[in-house]
Amino acid sequence: MGKVGDKSYKFFLGLLKTYKNNIIAFVVALSIGLSFIVYEEGFAYKITVDGETIGITKNIDEVKSFIEELHKKEKQKTGTDIVLNQQIKFERVRVSNKELTDVHKIYANLENAMSFSCKAAAIIVDGKFVTALKNEEEANKVLEMLKNKYARDSDRTYFKEDVKIEEKYIPPKYLVSFEEALKILQQPVKKAVTYTVKENDSLWSIARAHDMYIDDILKLNPGLTENLKPGQVIYLSSAVPNVTVVTEKRIVYKEKIPFETKLTKDDKLYTNQSKVLVEGKKGLKEVTAVVVSYNGVEVSKEVKSENILEKPINKIVAVGSRRISYVATGSFNYPARGTITSRFGQRWGRFHTGVDIAAPQGSPIYAADGGTVIFSGWESGYGYLVKIDHHNGYVTYYGHASKLLVKKGDKVAKGQKIALVGSTGRATGPHLHFEVRKNGVPIDPMPFLNRR
Ligand SMILES: [Zn+2]
Predict the structure, then answer these.
(1) What is the CA(342)–ligand 1 centre distance, in A?
(2) How far is the centre of ligand 1, averaged over its atoms, from the C-alpha of 446 (Å)?
(3) Where does a domain end: 115, 144, 159?
(4) 11 and 64: one domain?
(5) Distance between CA 59 and CA 292 in Å, rounded?
(6) What is the CA(340)–ligand 1 centre distance, in A?
(7) Which residue range(s) make up the domain with 262?
(8) Cα torsion at 356, 359, 361, 367 (round to 10°)?
(9) How many domains would you assign to the chain?
């Protein structure tokens, strides 16, 4: 463009060279040349921007350098390669002087009509333009910085979304600084997420839980009605950052293994009794897991392996299967474990109405047979005493107790713990005074006693 005149001139010189020996040719050439010069003085240039005329001028070089200047300024501003979005053409036209446009008017028109695109490294997230920096190095740096923000001591760091850097020509206003890009990438944006309807969900409860309006849920789900069914999948929008940094960290920790409680039957125990045979003990395992976090917030923990260091020991409990009976069997069991230190009958000039069984202070005293407690309290000489009526003419006495475990009116089973051995009342050391009365008269218990 703008070279038509030069070409004509070269053509004229060419003619001059070719026909320099031919005077006629020279004259012809000279006359052409002269007429050309005369003709050229009437020429100007029509400037069009994308086909639209913005002015006519003879000062074409000035206009061109003005355009160059605009280009250069824009390039300096963005710091990247820039391209002009429009096509500017200069067309040589023959016009009268009054048709020429004032050069300042042309400048103003050019500034209005021209726009630039700059070369940028665009960050594309899931196929969508999010932001752009002036070069790939900066774009990479900002993405790395974002990752490092959450990486800490993680084993693997990556973006949840498909994040790409693409070279693109964009309007310069979209070009941002490093800091701005970092901010934009972390900005929350509304994204569509799927939600599976749960039991008792309503549009209202879902809207509330997701910070949405019911109208917006309906807009996202054409045809949706209030009749939600559990398991139904609907769309919701959720505010999530433009990019999500996923970090994975392998962790190893020790965890206790709980034990089980196993029950076994024991016909020696009553149904309301139980006995721990083996105390349970928790085991220990070493767990290797991978913790996954989104932008630093833990979202899942996946156990990769477990190594048992100590097996748990199950607790074993014997549960009584013996039915409780408060009815007397007619025979008596030994009411305490110990040594008989004094028998029934004459003793040091006094009549001993029962047998004494020496046993350690606090050891248990058992009912010799089933029956009803008719006395539980203090009685002179006996100290703390329990009396059991077996409803078969026999009543048994348990004296010198340190502690009473039953009260008057209680039904007791044969072998049930009723008191603890002591030395209350007239006693010189801890022992049980056991007495059997038949129809109110003390008798020798020894012939009745069964070894336990
Ligand atoms: Zn006694």
Answers:
(1) 7
(2) 13
(3) 115
(4) yes
(5) 68
(6) 10
(7) 248-320
(8) -70
(9) 5
Query: What number is the average pLDDT over the span 270-275?
Result: 84
If you average pLDDT over residues 91-101, what whole number do you get?
89
Contact 151, 157 (CB under 8 A): yes
Q: Is residue 408 part of a domain?
A: yes
Tens digits of residue pLDDT in 242-268: 899 999 999 999 999 999 999 999 988
How close is the Cα of 398 to the center of ligand 1, in Å?
Answer: 10
451 pLDDT tier (thresholds 50, 70, 90):
low
Helices (H), 202-279: 203-209, 214-220
**Coil, strand or helix at 380:** coil
CB 56 within 8 A of CB 104: no
Taking the centre of ligand 1 as the mean of its atom positions, its distance from the CA of residue 433, in whole angstroms, is: 4
Residue 326 covered by a domain: no
The pLDDT confidence band at residue 142, using thresholds 50, 70 and 90, is: very high
CA–CA gap between residue 357 and residue 235 (Å, rounded): 83
Centre of ligand 1 from the C-alpha of residue 383, in Å: 11
22 confidence band (pLDDT: 50, 70, 90): low
Query: What is the Å distance from ligand 1's center to 352 Cα?
Result: 6
Residues 6+ away with beta carbon under 8 Å from 428? none
Report the CATH number that the domain containing residue 344 is assigned in CATH.
Answer: 2.70.70.10
In this structure, is residue 167 part of a structural domain?
yes
Q: How far is the CA of 412 from the centre of ligand 1 (A)?
A: 23
If you measure from the C-alpha of residue 425 to the centroid of ligand 1, how many angstroms do you get, rounded to a whole number? 11
